[in-house]
UniProtKB/TrEMBL annotation, chain A:
<dbReference type="InterPro" id="IPR000515">
    <property type="entry name" value="MetI-like"/>
</dbReference>
<keyword id="KW-0472">Membrane</keyword>
<keyword id="KW-0813">Transport</keyword>
<feature type="transmembrane region" description="Helical">
    <location>
        <begin position="248"/>
        <end position="268"/>
    </location>
</feature>
<feature type="transmembrane region" description="Helical">
    <location>
        <begin position="147"/>
        <end position="169"/>
    </location>
</feature>
<feature type="domain" description="ABC transmembrane type-1">
    <location>
        <begin position="63"/>
        <end position="267"/>
    </location>
</feature>
<dbReference type="GO" id="GO:0055085">
    <property type="term" value="P:transmembrane transport"/>
</dbReference>
<dbReference type="Pfam" id="PF00528">
    <property type="entry name" value="BPD_transp_1"/>
</dbReference>
<feature type="transmembrane region" description="Helical">
    <location>
        <begin position="20"/>
        <end position="39"/>
    </location>
</feature>
UniProtKB/TrEMBL annotation, chain B:
<dbReference type="GO" id="GO:0005886">
    <property type="term" value="C:plasma membrane"/>
</dbReference>
<feature type="transmembrane region" description="Helical">
    <location>
        <begin position="237"/>
        <end position="256"/>
    </location>
</feature>
<feature type="transmembrane region" description="Helical">
    <location>
        <begin position="178"/>
        <end position="200"/>
    </location>
</feature>
<keyword id="KW-1133">Transmembrane helix</keyword>
<feature type="transmembrane region" description="Helical">
    <location>
        <begin position="110"/>
        <end position="132"/>
    </location>
</feature>
<feature type="domain" description="ABC transmembrane type-1">
    <location>
        <begin position="66"/>
        <end position="254"/>
    </location>
</feature>
<feature type="transmembrane region" description="Helical">
    <location>
        <begin position="62"/>
        <end position="89"/>
    </location>
</feature>
<keyword id="KW-0472">Membrane</keyword>
<keyword id="KW-0813">Transport</keyword>
């Protein structure tokens, strides 16, 4: 019996073999290449200049701008998603599941086309202004401003915030809520004491899934910001595709990875059991 | 809670949901409407037409991109699911320290900026003399798909009762048989949603594909990406609308049947 | 439930896979000799797809066709050599850069008899970046100028622009579209001050940069080819655009029955004219097929067909002769190249100067 269990244990360990090899080859090695490019210059000698470049005025400004916009987008996503998740939870499992699908469905239309469609909607002579004009309301002029970029970010990443929170909320037992109500807690107290603390893993997961991609996006600022607003994602993209300065691009990417590491640390701390996953 | 305020709550929450739905679907509807627009303009309506749909089927570049997209999405999702499920099972029984390390590495492709992942893979391929082409795109897609599979399967694994598995072993079942009969059915929803998620992610990606494809390979996303600056052919709207509607119909179909018979969930 | 989901999923996947295989099967059926291929790398929307099919039918060569969006994006791909293209269509200054970096091979003009169809004046201009006309065969050419919306300008009370400096007019705030490309943007600023658009003088460049920063609040957006659609849509009053878009724009305005006109003007201070030409990379594996391709595209009937699709001016005299008179006389499309005031071709200035330009461009963008 023991040896069979042992055999099973070894078998289990072996199961991750292919995965570990794959990760080593296609995640870790490429990562090492970025580190290598980031720490060398065109001549091949070691240098910190690509990393220090983040401090140069243009780059620092782009970084602060990106941080600001992503932060705003993340907070907006959270404020929009939380009530939505609670409402969905209240609809019950089957209907809730269906509605969740309906909310994920937009992700099936290509990301670029979705963003381009927002351009069509927001333009001066676009669809929204057309409708507003028909209703004799003043036209909006969001296109080519930072607000439009935030809108694009919220639009594209909202599902990533809704799903983890919904998942976590749906695991909360109704009985706990009922017990709290029986014990005299009002809505506010129930939220602070029960809903919120129990949903932290989902919130953290959602924040990570929204903040990090929005930090590095460049398509949204190109299409909706009129290319007038230089985000750190634009800088990196330009260095790789137009400036042909892969070293600088890699160096800047390494700096961005700091944020990724912070996110990973937060997940490890607040969501140890992986409850807040999106799926 | 009084009946009145409960009803009010429902109306408000319904209203909120509808608002968000409108927000989410406005661009999609716009695209679908534009796919029937005779005029190429994105803001003027020039009359109804189906010409973009027929043009789409005639275009060799669109059709070949469609094939490539579907094949890559399907194959990469499949392989990622197999590798990922196996890995998830293994990681689940790891001790704390290796577990954290491996889960950390798993998070890297998901959290890393697309462009960095794409470039790093391209650099690695070039450095090792692997020529860019279909296989490199496939490898890249599998790479970023596996973490999604793992993260879909893990929660289900945790929920499975490990003791059931051990009980099966105790009762004399060989490990593999026990696995497929006891553990696998329970984690199935996780495996399926992992597959679906991997498929979706693969479908939408353009940056990673852009950097790792070679000559002549195009997915729909890279095709669109190359047209974004120039002005997208309306046939692309047509194609996207078709894909979208197909998925919508399928999902409604699947869910309708499950709503009708909730007890069998 | 699980069973249903599994079955549905299986059905979907099978359907997807079979659809994919069916559309893919058609392709492989036409596969002739394994190696009779041609890898083409061209700008997006820069060829009539029928031309590709016609070429394949007439020569039996299988064409693999890839597109790029900017010269700067194309260059690293050719340089890295990870993908071996046989024939590429870069712009003037990029050809110069590629030639200087030994990335091109000389064309064997014996294999390109239709070369004679290219107008001599274009070959002369090409000497600016290809001094002995060894490496390139012109494909399309044009100028860069200002496109303006007559009605919108009337509403704003601004006269039609005739100079680059008109794009700094405060009355046009939020109505200006500039090109999202470093050399093109600097062309505007440098020409405005009377400098050469190939300037390497730091003071001149700094002045140009400051001008562009000054202009930025007035600019609606920095775009590349979307200028065309935005102008047609009436989003802006003026935009910097390539002459090649004019025919498309004129047709679109007529089609949509718009009540405003879109006119093109080459500013007085001068502008750049550009030529996109076909070149053969040094690491091409199918050089003769590449030469056949170029020869095919230089055939007057093929050049004319391409022109009708791309609508960019063709340097092919044979094709030009086949056009209708009103097209021949379309001055926006076919200006008299020798009478263009102060026009220059963009030259490659070397990596170091390029970096200066790029850094300044970043400064402008991050303002």
């Amino acid at each position: 019996m023991n040896s069979e269990k042992k055999g099973a244990a070894i078998g289990k360990a072996l199961l991750s073999g292919p995965y570990l090899l794959w990760m080593a080859g296609f995640t870790l090695i490429p990562l090492a290449m970025i580190v290598w490019y980031g720490l060398t210059d065109k001549g091949g000698s070691l240098t910190m200049s690509n990393i220090i470049a983040i401090a140069s005025p243009d780059h620092a400004k782009a970084l602060w701008l990106s941080l600001g916009l992503s932060l705003i987008s993340t907070v907006l996503c959270l404020l929009l998603a939380y009530p939505l998740a609670m409402i969905l939870r209240g609809r019950g499992a089957a209907a809730g599941g269906f509605i969740v699908f309906i909310f994920i469905l937009p992700m099936w239309m290509n990301f670029l086309l979705r963003t381009l469609a927002w351009q069509t909607l927001l333009e001066k002579n676009g669809v929204i202004n057309g409708i507003l004009g028909w209703l004799h309301l003043p036209a909006q002029s969001l296109i080519n401003t930072p607000a439009a970029i935030v809108l694009g970010m919220v639009y594209n990443f909202l599902p990533f915030m809704v799903l983890p929170i919904y998942n976590v909320l749906s695991k909360i037992d109704d009985n706990i809520i009922n017990a709290a109500m029986d014990l005299g807690a009002n809505s506010f107290q129930r939220f602070i004491r029960i809903w919120f603390p129990l949903s932290i893993p989902g919130i953290i997961s959602g924040i990570t899934m929204v903040f990090v991609p929005s930090l590095t996006t460049f398509v949204i600022s190109d299409l909706l910001g009129g290319s007038k607003i230089l985000l750190i994602g634009n800088v990196i993209e330009q260095e790789f595709t137009r400036g042909s300065n892969w070293h600088l691009g890699s160096g800047l990417s390494l700096v961005l990875m700091v944020f990724i590491l912070i996110s990973m640390a937060m997940i490890a701390k607040y969501d140890k059991n992986g409850e807040g996953t999106a799926f | 809670m009084t009946k009145g305020s409960k009803a009010l709550r429902k109306i408000v929450s319904d209203f909120y949901m509808v608002l968000i739905l409108i927000f989410l679907y406005a661009p999609i509807l716009t695209m679908m409407v534009l796919s029937f627009n005779k005029s190429k303009s994105r803001t003027q309506w020039g009359g109804f037409t189906l010409q973009w749909y027929t043009q789409m089927f005639d275009s060799r570049s669109i059709m070949s991109a469609l094939t490539t997209t579907l094949v890559i999405a399907f194959v990469s999702a499949l392989i990622a699911t197999i590798i990922g499920t196996a890995a998830a099972i293994s990681i689940n029984s790891m001790r704390a320290v290796p577990k954290t390390v491996v889960m950390g590495i798993t998070n890297i492709p998901m959290l890393n900026a697309d462009i960095v992942t794409g470039i790093s893979l391209m650099l690695a391929f070039i450095a090792f003399g692997i020529s860019l082409g279909f296989k490199t795109v496939l490898i890249s897609h599998i790479t970023f798909n596996i973490p999604y599979v793992i993260l879909s399967v893990m929660p289900k694994l945790k929920m499975t009762d490990r003791y059931t598995y051990e009980a099966a072993l105790d009762l004399g079942a060989p490990p593999i048989y026990a696995f497929f009969k006891v553990v696998f059915p329970d984690i199935m929803p996780g495996v399926l949603s992992g597959f679906l998620l991997a498929f979706t992610m693969s479908l939408d990606d353009f940056i990673i594909t852009h950097f790792t494809k070679g000559a002549g390979i195009n997915t729909l996303s890279t095709l669109i990406y190359s047209e974004v600056r120039r002005g997208i052919r309306p046939s692309m709207y047509a194609l996207s609308s078709i894909i979208f509607l197909t998925v919508l119909i399928l999902l409604i179909f699947v869910n309708f049947r499950s709503i009708k018979k909730p007890e069998h969930a | 439930m699980k069973k249903k989901m599994t079955m549905t999923l299986a059905a979907v996947s099978l359907a997807a896979l079979s659809a994919a295989l069916m559309t893919g099967c058609g392709k492989s059926a036409s596969g002739g000799k394994e190696d009779n291929k041609l890898n083409v790398y061209n700008w997006g929307e820069y060829i009539d797809e029928d031309v590709i099919s016609q070429f394949e039918d007439e020569t039996g060569i299988q064409v693999v066709y890839d597109v790029f969006e900017t010269n700067e994006e194309m260059y690293p791909v050719i340089e890295a050599g990870a993908v071996k293209y046989d024939v590429v269509c870069p712009s003037d200054y990029m050809i110069q850069r590629m030639a200087q970096n030994n990335l091109l091979s000389e064309i064997n003009f014996d294999n390109v008899p239709n070369y004679k169809e290219i107008g001599q004046e274009y070959l002369d201009i090409s000497k600016g970046f290809d001094p002995e006309n060894k490496y390139s065969v012109p494909y399309c050419w044009g100028t860069m100028g200002i496109l303006y919306n007559t009605k919108r300008l009337e509403e704003l009370g601004v006269p039609a622009p005739t100079k680059w400096s008109d794009l700094w007019d405060e009355r046009l705030s939020g109505e200006i579209l500039m090109q999202n490309s470093v050399r093109d943007a600097f062309t505007v600023a440098l020409k405005m001050e009377g400098y050469s658009l190939n300037s390497t003088n730091p003071d001149e460049l700094a002045k140009a940069r400051d001008l562009l920063i000054e202009q930025k609040p007035l600019v609606q957006a920095y775009v590349i080819d979307q200028v065309r659609d935005k102008m047609i849509g009436g989003e802006a009053a003026v935009g910097v655009i390539y002459s090649g878009e004019m025919l498309y724009i004129q047709e679109a305005v007529a089609d949509q029955g718009l009540d405003y006109d879109l006119e093109y003007v080459i500013p007085e201070e001068g502008t750049n004219y550009w030529i996109d030409s076909w070149v053969i990379p040094a690491n091409a594996e199918h050089k003769e097929n590449a030469e056949k391709w170029i020869d095919f595209l230089c055939r007057p009937d093929i050049a004319k067909k391409n022109f009708e699709y791309i609508t960019y001016a063709t340097p092919n005299k044979g094709a030009y002769d086949l056009l209708d008179d009103d097209l021949k006389n379309n001055k926006a499309l076919f200006p008299d190249i020798n009478s263009l005031p102060n026009c220059e071709i963009i030259k490659y200035l070397g990596d170091d100067v390029d970096m200066i330009y790029n850094d300044m461009w970043k400064e402008i963008k991050s303002e």
